[in-house]
Amino acid sequence: MKIYTGQGDGGQTSLFDGTRLFKDHALIETYGAVDELNSFVGALSASIPDEGCIPRKDLDLIQSDLILLNTWLTVNPKSRQASKLASFGQEKITYLEGAIDRLQKRLPDLKGFLLPGGHVSAAWAHVARSVCRRAERRLVRLLREPSAEVPGESLRLFQVYLNRLSDYLFVLARWCNFQHGMSDTVLDK
Length: 189
Prior knowledge:
Layout: E1 12-14, E2 20-22, H1 26-47, H2 54-74, H3 90-104, E3 114-115, H4 120-144, H5 152-179, E4 185-186
Antiparallel strand pairs: 1-2, 3-4
Helix pairs in contact: 1-2, 1-4, 2-5, 3-5, 4-5
């Protein structure tokens, strides 16, 4: 299979059902931001040294969730393909909340605003967190469009998921620093 087709040379791309949209369409912008987030989550996962640790397993699940989220974004909800997709429900948000609680209970209390950085894995977590916030903003913009192709309830769940994911990535950054014996850098007033 050739990787290049030339079909996008005119500034359009295809959704899963064949619908053509310009690459700057709000749906494609959202899809692209989530795809970029997934790449940064992969870089974050690669920067965490212990392959058997729980956050690496969490990040594998998160990357799968992000692929599923993007699949839902590219499938017309009224198409027959939509009936074949795995569900994207509240349980994914609940899992993230449990993961946040599990990591946070090991951490010292937060005493102010943090400067992103510290151990390389913490720095990657902060980068992923900020990219996650951008993906969430793109999704909010899409949600506000009256012509959104994805049902509002699905978009709402995706928005909550991304909001919770950015919280998880913030706590994970703190956990990474803590695991490596580094203190978070608190903003000097």
